[in-house]
């Protein structure tokens, strides 16, 4: 797929996906969403990519959906509108199943689609120019991108509802205080700091273990009982026992040197996480 509304770049094991509609503050379109999902597919399939950074071109991260065409209309015959297509309307569903760490470097406004898309990213940092808004109530539309699922799990129910009920736009310091972002840095330091975080993961962590851990944490948010997580961890532990990476982890520790891991994310078993409920309380 030729990219027109994003920029996809890979350097030293880290892919950077940049929303690239600066003249429109990177407002979301069907094409931008499709291109982003295609770029995530590329990053997932490339074992040389160990982490992904998201950012925006110009003065915004993503200022929501592009509404320049005006409000959408219901079908003339009174029937229900067609169901949303995950590939063209959301990136959070792809991110939820994505096997590698994802870092958000929020350089400016992240509103509506832009704010909700952040929620499925693992580590979120922003510059002092960051602005956030879950503005759906002010547009008379429902939350999107599973924001109603992600947001309370990240910041708690009360904070999530405060932002969702009011629909107000708030700044970087409130985002930090509320737990939406973990760091606020100066604008000219944003990408360097995002890269530092990515390099720490790439340079010191076993790819297979990282991939499993990401899935275990995100999927574990919906388990009925911790026994499900225990089953998944135990299964992955057996799969890794005696592997080159497990041996390297111990040997490098004993030899007091940096580890050199050889495992690839593409080797992660498909059934690493139990499908459905693995343990139900009687």
Which descriptors would you attach to this protein?
282 residues; 2-enoyl-CoA Hydratase, Chain A, domain 1; 6-stranded mixed beta sheet; Lyase 2-enoyl-coa Hydratase, Chain  A, domain 2; 2 domains; alpha/beta; 4-stranded mixed beta sheet; 41% helix; disordered C terminus
Rg, please? 20 Å
Described by the principal axes of the CA atoms, the overall outline is globular
CATH fold field value of the largest domain? 2-enoyl-CoA Hydratase, Chain A, domain 1
User: Strand order within the widest sheet?
Assistant: 1-2-3-5-7-10
**Run of helices and strands:** EEHEEHHEEHEEHHHEHEHHHH
Low-pLDDT parts are 276-282
Total of DSSP H or I helical runs spanning 4+ residues:
12
The CATH class of the largest domain is identified as: Alpha Beta
Spell out the CATH superfamily of the largest domain. Answer: 2-enoyl-CoA Hydratase, Chain A, domain 1
The percentage of residues in β strands lies in: 15-25%
Largest sheet data = 6 strands, mixed
Q: How many distinct domains?
A: 2
Number of strands: 10
- In percent, how helical is the residue content? 40-55%
Overall pLDDT confidence: 90
Q: Strand pairing plus helix content: what structural class? A: alpha/beta
Polypeptide structure, described:
The protein is an alpha/beta fold. It has two domains: 6-67 and 81-202, Alpha-Beta Complex (2-enoyl-CoA Hydratase, Chain A, domain 1), CATH 3.90.226.10; 206-267, Lyase 2-enoyl-coa Hydratase, Chain  A, domain 2 (Orthogonal Bundle). Helices cover 41% and strands 15% of the residues. The protein contains twelve helices and ten strands. It has helices at 30-45, 86-89, 92-96, 113-118, 136-139, 147-155, 157-166, 172-178, 190-204, 207-220, 226-240, 244-254, and strands at residues 6-11, 14-19, 51-56, 60-62, 102-106, 109-111, 123-127, 131-133, 169-171, 183-185. It has a six-stranded mixed beta sheet with strand order 1-2-3-5-7-10, with helices on both faces. Strands 4-6-8-9 form a four-stranded mixed beta sheet. Helix 1 (30-45) links the parallel strand 2 (14-19) and strand 3 (51-56). The chain is globular, with a radius of gyration of 20 Å. The chain starts with 5 loop residues before the first strand and ends in a 28-residue tail after the last helix.
């Amino acid at each position: 797929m030729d990219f027109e509304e994003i920029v996809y770049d890979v350097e030293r094991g880290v892919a950077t996906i940049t929303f690239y509609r600066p003249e429109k503050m990177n407002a979301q379109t069907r094409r931008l969403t499709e291109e982003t999902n295609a770029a995530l597919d590329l990053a997932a399939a490339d074992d040389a990519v160990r982490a992904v950074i998201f950012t925006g071109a110009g003065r915004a991260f993503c200022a929501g959906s592009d509404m320049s065409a005006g409000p959408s209309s219901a079908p003339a015959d009174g029937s229900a509108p067609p169901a949303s297509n995950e590939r063209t309307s959301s990136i959070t569903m792809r991110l939820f199943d994505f096997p590698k760490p994802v870092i958000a470097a929020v350089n400016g406004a992240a509103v509506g689609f832009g704010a909700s898309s952040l929620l499925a990213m693992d580590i979120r940092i922003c510059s002092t120019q960051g602005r956030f808004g879950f503005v759906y109530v002010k547009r008379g539309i429902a939350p999107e991108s599973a924001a109603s699922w992600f947001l309370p799990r990240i910041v708690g129910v009360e904070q999530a509802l405060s932002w969702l009920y009011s629909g107000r736009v708030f700044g970087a310091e409130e985002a930090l205080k509320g737990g939406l972002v973990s760091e606020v840095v100066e604008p000219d330091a944003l990408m360097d700091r995002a890269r530092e975080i990515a390099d720490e993961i790439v340079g010191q962590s076993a790819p297979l273990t990282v991939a499993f851990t990401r899935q275990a944490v995100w999927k574990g948010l919906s388990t009925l009982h911790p026994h499900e997580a225990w089953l998944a961890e135990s299964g992955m532990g057996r799969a890794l026992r005696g592997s080159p990476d497990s041996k390297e982890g111990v040997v490098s520790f004993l030899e007091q040197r940096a580890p050199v891991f050889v495992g690839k994310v593409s080797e992660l078993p498909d059934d690493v996480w139990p499908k459905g409920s693995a343990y139900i309380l009687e």
